């Protein structure tokens, strides 16, 4: 697992907010003491702007931080200023998704629900290329290929020395729709089935006949090994990503995920369904899932 500048920047921002509040200072009072605009403090604490070490030390002086805290946060600031491995894909990487890739790089657990597409971490190259061509409009061929390569590079987290723990609930439509054609889809299903045999990857299929459930769309919950960084819920649309971090928000999505896991096919049955469909033994796609 790599050190992610994104995660370090967010931990640093959270710590600075906590120190300011412990010092019983408002953002306006802090800015006045430093001869800055209040918006600069706000942007730093909201993680919309990085912080230089010199500015950090000035803030820590105002907050009367002890030497251990100063050393810890200075190291965080230096780590946060580095470029992540994904920086080389900047031309094809939307800024709102760059944050997600940075979070994923250091997460130790991911729980995800996908309604009608295979989760990116489980996709084959051929499936990823077909999906990207269908969903990303008005992009150059070069950028499309970069997006595919980025998706494949993200999958390295599944093969780290300390691999990511992934639990995916996947809608039945995702394993029925022949993205890229039947050959590509057969290869994709075989790939998921192989990954699902690993102890750190769990896949459950949510059949259509399972009926109603509380999820209103796809979502991902990222968990982190550092106690300083809370869980993050990620929601994505065609025009951007949305991040939820408030405890009541992440708790809500955790409950929804628990409900989905309880109502989906169990992992063993899901693996059987994947293998059956991949082997071509399933009946026509219009037949309800067994």
Helix proportion of residues, in percent? 40-55%
Secondary-structure content class: alpha/beta
* Series of secondary-structure elements, N-terminal to C-terminal: HHHHHHEHHEHHEEEEHH
How many helical stretches?
12
Task: Record the strand order, biggest sheet.
Answer: 3-2-1-4-5-6
Radius of gyration: 22 Å
Under the CATH scheme, which class of the largest domain? Alpha Beta
Total strand segments:
6
Named CATH architecture of the largest domain: 2-Layer Sandwich
Stated plainly, the CATH topology of the largest domain is called Endonuclease, Chain A
Distance between the termini: 39 Å
Query: Which range does the strand content fall in?
Result: 5-15%
The global form is elongated
- Main β-sheet description: 6 strands, mixed
Whole-number tally of structural domains: 2
Mean pLDDT: 91
Which spans have pLDDT < 50 for at least 5 consecutive residues? 281-290
GO molecular function: DNA binding
Organism: Actinopolyspora alba
Domain HTH cro/C1-type: 16-70
InterPro entries: Cro/C1-type_HTH, DUF5753, Lambda_DNA-bd_dom_sf
Descriptive overview:
The protein has two domains: 76 residues, 434 Repressor (Amino-terminal Domain), CATH 1.10.260.40; 194 residues, Endonuclease, Chain A (2-Layer Sandwich). It is built from twelve helices and six strands. Strands 3-2-1-4-5-6 form a six-stranded mixed β-sheet, sandwiched between helices. The C terminus is likely disordered.
């Amino acid at each position: 697992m790599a050190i992610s500048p994104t995660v370090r920047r967010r931990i640093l921002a959270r710590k600075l907010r906590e120190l300011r509040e412990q010092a019983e200072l408002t953002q306006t009072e802090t800015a006045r003491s430093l001869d800055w605009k209040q918006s600069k403090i706000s942007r730093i604490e909201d993680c919309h702007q990085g912080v230089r070490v010199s500015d950090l030390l000035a803030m820590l002086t105002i907050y009367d931080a002890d030497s251990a805290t100063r050393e810890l946060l200075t190291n965080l600031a230096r780590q946060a200023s580095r470029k992540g491995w994904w920086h080389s894909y900047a031309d094809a990487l939307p800024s709102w998704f760059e944050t997600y890739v940075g979070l994923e790089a250091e997460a130790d657990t991911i729980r995800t629900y996908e309604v009608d597409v295979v989760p990116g971490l489980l996709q084959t190259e051929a499936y990823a290329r077909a999906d990207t061509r269908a969903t990303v409009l008005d992009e150059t061929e070069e950028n499309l290929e970069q997006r595919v390569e980025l998706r494949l590079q993200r999958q390295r987290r599944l093969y780290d020395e300390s691999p990511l723990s992934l639990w995916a609930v996947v809608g039945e439509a995702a394993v029925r729709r022949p993205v890229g054609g039947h050959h590509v889809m057969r290869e994709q299903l075989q790939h998921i089935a192989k990954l699902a045999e690993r102890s750190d990857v769990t896949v459950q299929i949510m059949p259509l006949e399972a009926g109603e459930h509380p999820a209103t769309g796809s979502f991902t919950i990222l968990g982190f090994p550092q106690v300083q960084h809370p869980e993050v819920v990620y929601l994505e649309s065609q025009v951007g990503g949305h991040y939820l971090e408030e405890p009541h928000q992440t708790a809500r999505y955790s409950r929804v995920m628990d409900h989905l896991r309880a109502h989906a096919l169990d992992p063993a049955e899901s693996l059987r369904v994947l293998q059956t469909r991949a082997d071509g033994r399933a009946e026509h796609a219009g037949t309800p899932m067994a």
